[in-house]
Amino acid sequence: MHVEDLLRLESLDLTLLWGDRPQLTREISGVTATDLEDPGRFLQRGELVLSGLVWWAPADDEAKAERFVAALGEAGAAALLAGEETHGGVPDVLVEACRRHGIAILSVPVHTSFRAVTDTVYLRQWGDLSRRPAAPYALPENVRAELSRLLADGTDPDTLLTRAVAHLGTPPAYVLSATGRTIARTPTAAPLPVSRAAEALTATTTLSVDPDASPYGQWHLHLPEPVGTPPRMLHEIAEVLAQHRRTARRRETTARALASDLLALIDTPSSPAAPAALRRALEACGLADQDPYTVITVKGEADDDGTLDALTEALHHLTDRGFAVGRLPTGEPGEATAVIGTSAESGEDPIATALKSLWPTLQSRNGSVPFHGGMSTPAATPQLLKGALTQARYALTAARSEKAQGTAASTSRLTAIDELTTLDALLTGIPSDVRTAFGIHALGALADATNPSHRMLLETLDVFLTHNGSWARTAEALHLHVNTVHYRIQRVEMLTGRDLARLDHKLDLKAALLCR
User: Fold this and answer.
1) Which of 44, 145, 256, 325 is least surrounded, with the fewest CB atoms within 10 Å of its CB?
2) What are the tens digits of pLDDT across the range 216-237?
């Protein structure tokens, strides 16, 4: 599909603002919606860029539009489709910037949704299963034709699966996610608990639908009962489901771009995002009026999509909750963040409970890479989301600091901020280099653990503080005379410059010991 094909579609009612023949004949590889000022790192070559122009204001200088369009040009965007709703039209400065950079720009009227544009592009790119030039098929021609129509109509996966196996007598069949979530099942298939479904993923009657996806984003076709179906036919059914999956992933990519725009607003370093812009971003992500909101940040393998897929898959297990998963502009490689719509239940947080029970299953999908998460307390209003994001990132640092018992290796863990109720737990959320620096400066000369005398004094200090400053209990625990304990503590005070008769100085040194 080429850019000029969009202009021929009366249903979209797009208007060409600028573009010559070379621009209009560019091939379209996909669609991305964004309102970031610099969207370059989220784009792939050949994509259409949909923008509501929320990032631009009439008072802005030309340089802002220039930077936006330059990012599109560097990424190799096919064209810019600019929405008219925000400003009542498309700014001239944006059109001129597109002209300078050789990028076609089309206006999208108010009555045409970005979803309509996205669906139109991907429907054209699907092709028709029944027209593929290949060797004879195992699936009957009438079945292939029906499945092709269902794909074009955007049919739900339950119907698609049921019709795909109907000519086999509609045996029990499932489409399962990487963690055992049932995505689709035939009417003859009984509900499958997640634990049993996860076991079924290793069965010989299970076929991968999308083997090129990340370990967390794969779908699987599972037939629990042998039906004597030729393997080639099952592979063709899996290919039909794979086409549906690829379409879902394209929509997911668009949704992630919108979520990243929302996260960029929340993570604004200078001041909280303007309420109107934040409200529009939440609405674009389908999260309007779903407050209070919970924020979760996770860290996995430093790849393109694995962590995003893992977090998305985990949140799909939460029933009746909207969420938006994306990347923070300031996030580390392999980090993903989500905003979750939260109902105001009382008692233990059901989100934390559900995700904690799922965490071992998530980890098992890619056992070589620890998977950590941090979760905030609910933010009562959108304006409190920045604080919730800070909480989630702090809790993530705490989770990453947790070591597996008896080893120095990090253990996969989800930590909620309200679990950090002790000094030790609180300190785990501080970056390790900051903890180390604090310990060195607070302990002074005692921080040199290579000195045997200093190691002895540190042990005495630790026992003394553990026994609440009791001279007698410390002496008993160390099998020392009380006078020896007095002498050692005096040495500690001299080397650290602290007075252990004072509570604040005791807390300083206790924190320093915990930071080692």
Assistant:
1) 44
2) 888 889 888 766 677 778 888 8
